[in-house]
């Protein structure tokens, strides 16, 4: 239990680690945009990966 107490997740059991599956992605001038979905609770997120060697950053928190 650390962070997600006030997070609005549809029906995620409180403390599972989201298992993000990339549904689609496309290249933009800002970097690579990744549309990911948690395979466990179905929550969606949009990530931006500015560089192939850098980890993606979340653009939106659990919108869906
Ligand atoms: Zn999840």
Automatic annotation (TrEMBL):
Disordered, as annotated region: 1-26
Tree of life domain: Bacteria
Protein name per UniProt: RNHCP domain-containing protein
UniProt organism field: Nocardioides panzhihuensis
Taxonomic lineage from the root: Bacteria, Bacillati, Actinomycetota, Actinomycetes, Propionibacteriales
């Amino acid at each position: 239990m650390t962070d997600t107490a006030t997070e609005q997740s549809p029906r995620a059991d409180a403390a599972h680690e989201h298992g993000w599956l990339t549904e689609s992605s496309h290249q933009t001038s800002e970097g690579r945009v990744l549309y990911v979905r948690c395979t466990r609770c179905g929550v969606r997120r949009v990530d931006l990966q500015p560089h192939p060697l850098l980890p993606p950053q979340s653009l939106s928190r659990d919108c869906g």
